[in-house]
Every structure is written in structure tokens, then in C-alpha cells.
Design goal:
The protein is mainly alpha-helical. It is 80% helix and 0% strand.
Length: 216
């Protein structure tokens, strides 16, 4: 169609990376508080929050993302929300384990004895010591979010007003399918074949003798 694919790839890279970064940030905003509260308080709070987390983990990520995008209509906002919804459970479980191992250390016990509130202990004493695994997990989540967005756009569930990597691949695939379909329909069309035969060569004479000749 005469489009500049190099410029499209550059623009699509910016869109896909932006979606991956924003969806990862939203996932962290959901998963970090749930994991920190679950690991710090434990007991029935931990049971309720972990059962809620396991419910989202039991559903296939891509299938849930497809359903959410189809419900809220394909757009950049719905894609970011759907990716964030399916990506936060690993963050919550990782942070829960880190908080459970850190809250029994001496500096946390000293903060409790000094009369600090639970919110202060979580945000100032515990969470700064969990940044390393969260940063590593976030980098992998950005890559996974880009793959999910590309898959959604490839299936036609992306924002048609924005060019991304998945949209470029999906548009090329759909154009190829239409081209192959036209070629096959032209090759199997009897009228097309008869027109091509009439343009190419004269029709062959019948090799069978005439009925009157048979009678003789």
C-alpha cells in the first residue's frame, strides 16, 4: 500500500514500550499493597488476600486479557487495564514472601518497640529492602506486557487508530490472506478460465465424427 514500514516500526516501538511501562506501573500499584499487607499482618488477612490472588492466577492470562478488552472495547486504555489486571498476582506473591522474611529482623522489631505505626513500618522499613527483586520482576513484566499487547493487536483487538508492532503484523497477515483468497478465487472461476482460454488460443475442434458421418 506504499507505506513506510521503517517509520511504522519506529512509531510502533514507542507505542508498545509505552503500553508495557504503563501497564507494569499499574500492576505494581495493585500488587505491592496487597503483597505487603498480606505478608505483614498474616492470619486471616493473608488467607483472604492470597485466595483472591490465586483466583486471578488460576485464569489463563491471555484469555482473561482478551475477554476484558472485548468487554471494554479495543483501545489503549482498555489494553493497559487488561494487562495490569492479569499481571499483578506475581508481584503480590513475590512481595508477600519478601515481607514475611524481613518483618522478623531486628530493625523492624526495633521500629515496633519505638511505637511506629504499621503503615510507617511497611513503607519506611520494609518496602525499601524489597526493591531489588521488584525491579528484576518489573523488567520481565514489561517484556511480557509488550507480547500481550502485540498478540491482542495481531488478533484485531488493538486500537486501530494507533500503530503498534502487533497491528503492523496483523495488518500484513490480513492483507496476505485477502491476496491469496483473490488469487485462488480467480484461478477457480470458470468464467475467468474461459476468458483466459479465449484470449490465449483458438478452441480445439471436436475430434469425434459428426453424427451424420457415423450414420454413413
Amino acid at each position: 500500500m506504499g507505506r513506510d514500514l521503517a517509520s511504522g516500526l519506529a512509531h510502533g516501538a514507542a507505542v508498545s514500550l509505552l503500553i508495557g511501562l504503563v501497564s507494569t506501573v499499574v500492576s505494581l500499584l495493585i500488587g505491592i499493597p496487597i503483597g505487603a499487607i498480606s505478608g505483614y499482618f498474616g492470619g486471616w488477612v493473608d488467607d483472604v488476600l492470597m485466595r483472591f490472588t490465586e483466583f486471578f492466577q488460576s485464569v489463563p492470562n491471555f484469555a482473561l486479557a482478551v475477554v476484558l478488552v472485548a468487554i471494554f472495547q479495543p483501545s489503549i486504555t482498555s489494553i493497559v487495564i487488561s494487562i495490569a489486571v492479569v499481571s499483578w498476582p506475581p508481584v503480590a506473591r513475590l512481595l508477600r514472601g519478601e515481607v514475611m522474611s524481613i518483618k522478623s529482623r531486628e530493625f523492624v522489631e526495633a521500629a515496633v518497640l519505638s511505637g511506629q505505626t504499621h503503615t510507617t513500618i511497611i513503607w519506611r522499613q520494609i518496602l525499601p529492602n524489597t526493591l531489588s527483586p521488584i525491579i528484576v520482576l518489573s523488567s520481565m513484566m514489561v517484556a511480557a506486557a509488550i507480547l500481550i499487547e502485540s498478540s491482542l493487536s495481531f488478533l484485531g483487538l488493538g486500537d486501530r487508530n494507533v500503530m503498534s508492532w502487533g497491528y503492523i503484523i496483523g495488518a500484513a497477515a490480513r492483507s496476505s490472506v485477502r491476496l491469496v483468497g483473490k488469487l485462488l478465487s480467480g484461478a477457480c472461476d470458470p468464467a475467468h478460465g474461459s476468458r483466459a482460454q479465449s484470449r490465449g488460443r483458438r478452441p480445439e475442434r471436436c475430434s469425434q465424427p459428426a453424427p451424420c458421418a457415423q450414420g454413413r
